[in-house]
Each structure stands twice: as structure tokens, then as C-alpha cells.
Design brief:
The chain is an alpha/beta fold and 224 residues long. It has seven helices and eleven strands. The protein starts with 6 loop residues before the first strand and ends with a helix.
């Protein structure tokens, strides 16, 4: 899909990495002599569908990102945008920093992103306002209350673990961010679901993990 439509890639690295520990941003960890961020950045930089790239970053880490950018021959225009305190705010800031028709949003801490994920998300935007990568749950998922008492059990065959990248019509997502400004969101698809838009899931694979804890970093190192 292109059809004259502008597509912006948004990479989110402004999180606090609280569960990672070590008091540092997991996106700057080194795997095989490259920062975690660089793996995702290279995939978007080399993808023909992508017109430009925005990275949401903490203000005090901008210089660090600029140093990383010196390691790559950029083919796309790239902007660094100040991230917010929460993921939702970072996305909103990035949506306002582009006039693209379509945005594709990715967690920088998923360095095992593949070209096919990007391509298939974008190609399915002909039919949907939102598309996400995900994998079917291998385990039975139970819904519990605040006291850890089971409320319901999901049907495993219909249960998906959602990953990134996620692709959206920019104007639709921006309007929903503004409409549900005070609603906590960890996944932008939720905003579309709230207004009854159909969100398409593209099946990815289980290697596309997000580095959340230090153990995850070691898993990714072994995969690479």
C-alpha cells in the first residue's frame, strides 16, 4: 500500500524502564555491539513504505539518541520528539508532530521486529483503520478481580497476545486520543475498540518479545 499516502514510523523509547531495573533505559542496552534501539530503527529506515521516522524520547536522553543516530546512514527524515510521562502522551505528541496519512507505532524495546510485520500492517490499512501484530496465547488466560479471584476464563483459541508494530489512520487515532484524553491506555488499539472500529490482527511470532526485565535482555541476546 502506498497510493500517494504518507506513512510515518513512530518509535517509542521514552518509558521509565521501571521493571527493567539498573536505573537506565533498556533501549540503550548493547546487544552484539548495537543498541537495542538501533535494531528497530534500521528496519524502519530500510523499509520502502516508510517516508519518515519520529522517535519519542526523554528530554534528558536526546543527546544520547543523537550519538546512536551517528551509527546509521539515515535514508529517511527523522525527528526527535519529547515523550510524555506515559506512553499515551508520547504517542499523542508524535501524532501532532506529523501530517502523515498513516502512522505505524513500535516499541523501541522490541528489537526483533521483522520487515514482514511492517509490510503486512501497512498493506492491511486498505481495509481497516487499525492493524496490530499479535500471537495466539499458548496458555489459558483467566480474568481475575482485585483480590485475584477468577471472574472468567477466556477461550484460548480466540485469545491473542498483542505486540507492536501497530498501524493506524493518523486522523482517526488523533481524534480518539483527544476524545478519550483521560482514559488510561497501554495499547492504542483500545481507543479504536472503544468506538467500535474493527482492528485487524496480523499473526506475528513469539520471538518479537518486548524487553521488560533484565532476563528478557538475555533472552533476546540468545535469539540474536
Amino acid at each position: 500500500m502506498k497510493n500517494g499516502k504518507k506513512i510515518t514510523a513512530i518509535i517509542l523509547i521514552a518509558g521509565n524502564s521501571k521493571r527493567f531495573g539498573k536505573n537506565r533505559n533498556k533501549n540503550f542496552e548493547i546487544i552484539n555491539k548495537k543498541s537495542v534501539l538501533l535494531y528497530s530503527l534500521e528496519e524502519f529506515n530500510n523499509n520502502d513504505y516508510i517516508d519518515d521516522i519520529i522517535i519519542a524520547v526523554k528530554e534528558n536522553e536526546i543527546e544520547k539518541v543523537k550519538n546512536i543516530l551517528e551509527e546509521i546512514a539515515l535514508k529517511k527524515d527523522l525527528k526527535l520528539i519529547k515523550g510524555g510521562k506515559e506512553r499515551k502522551e508520547s504517542v499523542y505528541n508524535c501524532l501532532n508532530a506529523t501530517n502523515a496519512d498513516i502512522v505505524i507505532i513500535h516499541d523501541g524495546a522490541r528489537p526483533l521486529i521483522k520487515k514482514t510485520y511492517i509490510d503486512r500492517c501497512i498493506e492491511n490499512m486498505n481495509e481497516y483503520k487499525g492493524v496490530t501484530v499479535g500471537v495466539k496465547s499458548k496458555d489459558t488466560i483467566k480474568i481475575a478481580d482485585d483480590n485475584n479471584i477468577v471472574i472468567n476464563t477466556t477461550n484460548r483459541s480466540n485469545t491473542w497476545i498483542i505486540q507492536t508494530p501497530q498501524c493506524f489512520e493518523r486522523e482517526t487515532l488523533l481524534s480518539l486520543h483527544e476524545k478519550y484524553k483521560n482514559m488510561p491506555v497501554t495499547d492504542d488499539c483500545l481507543l479504536l475498540e472503544k468506538d467500535n472500529y474493527k482492528v485487524k490482527i496480523i499473526e506475528g511470532d513469539y520471538t518479537n518479545i518486548k524487553i521488560t526485565t533484565y532476563d528478557d535482555l538475555n533472552i533476546v541476546k540468545n535469539m540474536l
